[in-house]
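User:
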Amino acid sequence: MSPNQPKISLNPADLFDVRAMLTDDERMIQDAVARFVDERALPLMPKAFEEGYFPTELISEVADLGLLGSSIEGYNCAGLNAVSYGLICQELERCDSGLRSFVSVQSSLCMYPIYAFGTEEQRQRWLPEMAAGRAIGCFGLTESQGGSDPMNMKTHAKRDGDDWIINGSKMWITNGSIADLAVVWAITDDGIQGFIIEKDFEGFSAPEIKHKFSLRASVTSALYFDNIRVPDSNRLPEVKGLKGPLSCLNQARYGITWGPIGAAIACYTEVLEYSKERILFGKPVAGTQTVQRRLADMARRITTAQLLSLQLGRLKDSGRLSPSQVSLAKWNNVRMALDIARDARDLLGGAGITTEYCPIRHMLNLESVITYEGTETVHELIVGREITGINAF
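Assistant: Predicted structure:
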């Protein structure tokens, strides 16, 4: 480097200038969501988390920004690319995992299967309403006894003339109690199939799960189906077997590879400023080797995750994405964010256990994120199967 060449100033939260690798449209989308988060969503989150409710007043604003079903073409959806959707998830989770979870479930787990596996009548009925936030969806796959084994499903649907009779239950369902419809997967005599169950169907209930210490600013529910009669016109006809729900999970997991980057950046930037301002033993905490090493490690982990998700998005946009690649990124990036949240909480000292600072909130949320959409162990085994060719499940 020439001695006269000016020193390059790096962004501590983007050391490899990943932003420069984005298109103008992608940067514009990220900036718009970031403004919404900073101006509207973030001021609401500490109280929402502390008191345990989802700020539903944000739904219409999220919809007005085009963030619901943003990757879907047509039906009043934005038709954005995969990288743009990832950036949306990153900025929303910089606010709170609960807000990102709401958008992920609506977009990837509810709107996507209706778009991919539904009839044109179902698409026309539901997708524009869901894109506008006037209809809220939830996704019913997980069962209390099943966990990571969806083949252990007990919910079943029996054909009865032109209808189906559905019995069973689902557990840990985001949006369940506020949803207008549930995309539910059930065992039939012809394999696993998907059904759109509407909230006013007789025999359907969705009680909210209380006493959570994670995802407190999010609605989590159980779903119960007691001899619900569902017309065949509410069945998703274009898929059978586990391919249906697993393809939905792959869409959601992709967004989750980006979301925790936002949570990690929120924790890292907050503790970085705190450590430069707090004076101990006559100098800033950031002036010690121990703290600089810890901050540098956070920056290293965030940079790795940023590059991983960006390449994953480019692969998805080019049609070359493998589910194993999504698993690797979900495993790496959520673990990265959880470790950073825990370390940031520690560096804040006693202040770190209050909602005045964000790390304790993100830390508790990420305990759920590392479990849902496939536990860390499940993703390790998916990658292990990919590289060895041997299924260890």
